[in-house]
Amino acid sequence: MSNLKISDRFAKSFLTETLIQNELEKAEKARQTLLQKTGPGNEFLGWVDLPGKISGDDLQKLRVAAETIQSHSQFLVVVGIGGSYLGARAVIEALTPEFSAPETQKKSVKIIYAGHHLDADYHSRLLAFLENKEFSVNVISKSGTTTEPAIAFRLLLSLLERKYGRENVKKRVFATTDREKGALKQLADEYGFPTFVIPDDVGGRYSVFTPVGLLPIAAAGFSINKLIDGAKQMETELKSKSASDGNIATIYAAIRNALYTKGKKTEILVSYTPALSFLSEWWKQLFGESEGKTGKGIFPASVQFTTDLHSMGQYIQDGERLLMETVIKVEAPKQDVYLTEKPDDRDGLNYLAGKKLSEVNQSAMLGTLIAHRDGGVPCLEITLPTLNEEMVGELLYFFEFACGVSGYMLGVNPFDQPGVEDYKNNMFALLGKKGFEKRKEEILSHIR
Ligand code: PA5
């Protein structure tokens, strides 16, 4: 049994029982298509079985690499973009305390990210910062040819070669890439970098439980065994339970698709803990890139409450009625704060004396759920007992599975991303890449 719970108590009033039942039936059919691997994109379904399939040896190899990095580096620069970056960052940021390292993280290195944009200032400051630091690089690219990480890696490799000498670079670079194809694989073979394989049948946004996510997470000091245990628990549950038995992924997929038919075209992922902000970024890529096709798809957005209630709250409460919310609730903080009484009560907060800060946050959440529902925004709630490796593993696998089901319900291939090539081709043409001469003429003629 997984620990994650879903509730539609603040969404139900927007839907009829018949519509919910119909969507649940569609969700169950989509679940079967996913499990039987008979739908579009079925060559990229390796992620479905991944948690249950990872061997102890694979995890051990990753832990050994993480320990090597920890033994000689203060920093690990994780170079990747999109699916080759967001999963690791989502987990690391969800679990890393803001102001201190926990006991379990004594051996960790600090993770820095690069290659996820093309900003010159960021990269020049990063290179200057690393000049006198001990660091390693984990370069992650399935294709091995993506421009952003390739540029960042070229810059970092030059710095590493200058600092440590070409011979020693292979102790500090870990490449996560295709088994045999791509420029990164060739470079890794030439230099002798240790390599980790991204399986052929796992696409970028579904790759967090491969070395793409697991090596940086292990280097950051977190237990990849526990993360995988959580994912495995969720895998078992979602594979074995049908929609009529209360499969939580089919419930989520059914309700969001039912709401979509009612004009709720934007889904906002809401969390009340800042640690989850990169989980929202990962979720946006997962659902946006999987479902936004052929003129269809719910637009995935995210906010951080209560912070954004003071900026986006007005629109959500009262703006165009095309929104639905999915709220991630973490029931218990790791450490609570008690509010005490003050004799003068100048700030007027004595009415809260004796309460925990988590109770105040929960009241803000409940008050907001009621207000938004009453304002015309249906809200789903996903509850986790606490934030730790197991729970994050459960949550990530839950969203992956629900996304596959939901994409099939919508009638798209949830495992391709043809639309992301267009900007790249224009950029290559503008930069004068060989083979793009004709496109350059065409696009420039449109902006003259
Ligand atoms: O989900 C995806 O497929 C994309 O986000 C890719 O992961 C991203 O474009 C990076 O690609 P690559 O790993 O080939 O560098």
Automatic annotation (TrEMBL):
Transmembrane segments: none
Pathway terms, separated by semicolons: Carbohydrate degradation; glycolysis; D-glyceraldehyde 3-phosphate and glycerone phosphate from D-glucose: step 2/4; Carbohydrate biosynthesis; gluconeogenesis
Catalytic residues, chain numbering: 289 (proton donor), 424
Main location: cytoplasm
Keywords tagged on the record: Cytoplasm, Gluconeogenesis, Glycolysis, Isomerase
Gene Ontology biological process terms, A to Z: gluconeogenesis; glucose 6-phosphate metabolic process; glycolytic process
GO cellular component, one term: cytosol
Entry EC number(s): 5.3.1.9
Coiled-coil segments: none
Described function: Catalyzes the reversible isomerization of glucose-6-phosphate to fructose-6-phosphate.
Matching Gene3D superfamilies: Glucose-6-phosphate isomerase like protein, domain 1
One protein family per Pfam: PGI
Location of the protein in the cell: Cytoplasm
PROSITE patterns: P_GLUCOSE_ISOMERASE_1, P_GLUCOSE_ISOMERASE_2, P_GLUCOSE_ISOMERASE_3
Protein name: Glucose-6-phosphate isomerase
Superkingdom of origin: Bacteria
Listed PANTHER family: GLUCOSE-6-PHOSPHATE ISOMERASE
Catalyses which reaction(s): alpha-D-glucose 6-phosphate = beta-D-fructose 6-phosphate
GO molecular function: carbohydrate derivative binding; glucose-6-phosphate isomerase activity; monosaccharide binding
Protein family membership: Belongs to the GPI family.
